[in-house]
Amino acid sequence: MAGVNVKWTGGKQFLAADQAGHVVVTDSEGQGFKPPDLMLASLVGCAGVDVVRILQKKRQKFSSIEVKVDKQNAPDAPWPIEKVEVEWTVRGQGLKEKAVRDAVDLAELKYCSVSASMTSKLITTVRVINEDEEAE
After folding, report:
1. Domain of residue 5, residue span
2. How far, in Å, CA of 120 to CA of 84, rounded?
3. Are residues 27 and 61 in the same domain?
4. Domain count, the chain
5. Do residues 124 and 69 share a domain?
6. CATH number at residue 70
């Protein structure tokens, strides 16, 4: 079974290491990722790999992908994330908006294990910016 090893390093800080030795610092006092923010980064990293793969298969000429993720927590402890808003900005030449939207939908709803594991409401916005149109 795959997983991570997590070690407390003092205060409110932990080091998480995967089987390949990659390390991530979590800390609720600003010396590393806050654990809920790391979960959001994991969501986008997971879906992003599939977005890239799908866009490449669809022969979309993208030059960059940026993702902004916002969350809304419940007002009471344990403050679960109630809503996640994800805004994908894809830049490139001659992008087809439907192809980009379909890639994001497939990645988030069908292929991403992190997304499938979350129970929060996921709201997604996709912005497609054709760089050739900006130059005019």
Report:
1. 1-33
2. 7
3. no
4. 2
5. yes
6. 3.30.300.20
User: pLDDT (tens digit, 0 to 9) for every residue of the chain, 136 residues total?
Assistant: 779 999 999 999 999 999 999 999 999 999 999 999 999 999 999 999 999 999 999 999 999 999 999 999 999 999 999 999 999 999 999 999 999 999 999 999 999 999 999 877 778 899 999 988 655 5
22 plus 53 within the same structural domain: no
| Long-range CB contacts for residues 106-114, cutoff 8 Å, separation at least 24 | 106/50, 106/54, 107/47, 107/48, 107/49, 107/50, 107/51, 107/54, 108/47, 111/47, 111/50, 112/43, 112/46, 112/47, 112/50, 113/46, 114/39, 114/42, 114/43, 114/45, 114/46, 114/47
Does one domain contain both 27 and 44?
no
Does this model's pTM top 0.70? yes
Alpha carbon distance 63, 117 (integer Å): 30
CB-facing half-sphere around the CA of 84: CA atoms within 13 A: 23
Give helix then strand counts, H and E, for the chain: 4, 6
Structure tokens belonging to residue 56: 């490449």
Domain match, 64 and 117 both = yes
